[in-house]
Design goal:
320 residues, Jelly Rolls, 2 domains, 8-stranded antiparallel sheet, 19 strands, globular
Length: 320
């Protein structure tokens, strides 16, 4: 009787183990990222496979399986899809989305562009060797990048490919992200948030943060001066804010959104010099010659090659 009981117990244990294993594999019986299995959380799969939509669920499939790919290997929707703009969590291509940095790497010095896979950002150290001036931290959606500069100099920034002539110059653009400002810039100074410019009086564009915690887009005015659009809404310290900046040369306007609320300036130039020969790239946190005093965490950075509408900015904000 004891032998029989032991055998039954062993059989039940093996059955439970099998059920647990099958549960780990998912409903399709295949492990995440493998053929027939569910996609990873960022809508990707293992090599040679794409994340595709099947019965409303993301499934890893062969590229030629005839399914609608939804991951970063998918084709960008046609231009007319812009009227049906959509915003989703993950790396699904969107109309006119040039690059998307989730900043979920948690380590290293590279931020991957999960849309095109060709526009990865790289950490650079214009002020000297790497130090504690940047860190991967828990952020608004998974992880993000926090930059500090206790010495008041720019010692680290994230450098992106320029994307030009896709955005800037005479081309419209939108840049959107989540920001957590821990400390404000010093009085009389501004902090570089994102842009491509060593000197906005001469060339390029930049978005900066003031000591009053307002945001400003600055571009050359064409007469030796600078044209600016500034928000009245503040990016208050100690909490995440979604910010987006659009430039629309066809309307000679720029709009700055803070938590979905936009303010438009109509006195912007129809084009401005990018000065591709100055060697400066698009950067997050500081340009090659800027001071940096504040502590800022960045997350979910997106670049579009058109000026998004207020409804679209709101959709991007609510996606994360």
């Amino acid at each position: 009787m004891r032998v029989l009981t032991a055998a039954v117990v062993l059989l039940l244990a093996n059955a439970c183990s099998l059920l647990v294993s099958l549960d780990d594999l998912g409903d399709g019986g295949a492990a995440p990222g493998t053929l027939g299995g569910p996609c990873y959380a960022n809508s990707t799969c293992n090599a040679s496979l794409v994340c595709a939509l099947e019965d409303g669920t993301g499934v890893c499939a062969l590229a030629d399986a005839g399914l609608d790919a939804i991951g970063p290997d998918a084709q960008t929707p046609p231009a007319d899809a812009a009227s049906e703009f959509f915003a989703v969590v993950g790396c699904t291509p969107q109309p006119d989305l040039v690059a998307y940095y989730t900043l979920d790497e948690t380590s290293g010095t590279v931020a991957h562009d999960c849309v095109s896979k060709t526009n990865d950002g790289t950490m650079v150290f214009p002020g000297g060797p790497a130090d504690a001036s940047f860190a991967w931290v828990d952020a608004r959606a998974n992880s993000g990048l926090r930059f500090t500069a206790p010495s008041g100099s720019c010692v680290a920034s994230l450098s992106f490919p320029t994307f030009a002539p896709t955005i800037g110059g005479s081309q419209p653009f939108t840049v959107a992200m989540w920001l957590l400002v821990a400390t404000a810039p010093k009085i009389g100074e501004i902090d570089y948030i994102v842009g491509k410019s060593n000197n906005p009086y001469q060339a390029g564009w930049r978005v900066s943060l003031s000591p009053q915690l307002t945001l400003t887009l600055a571009v050359p005015a064409g007469d030796g001066g600078v044209a600016t659009a500034t928000s009245s809404a503040i990016v208050s310290t100690g909490m995440y804010h979604h910010v987006a900046v659009t430039y629309d040369p066809s309307q000679t306007s720029a709009t700055i959104f803070v938590d979905g609320k936009g303010e438009t300036t109509s006195q912007m130039p129809a084009s401005f010099a990018l000065d591709e020969t100055d060697g400066d790239t698009q950067r997050l946190a500081c340009s090659s010659d800027d001071q940096h005093q504040s502590t800022v965490t960045y997350d979910e950075v997106r670049f579009y090659d058109r000026a998004l509408s207020a409804v679209e900015v709101d959709a991007v904000m609510n996606a994360n």
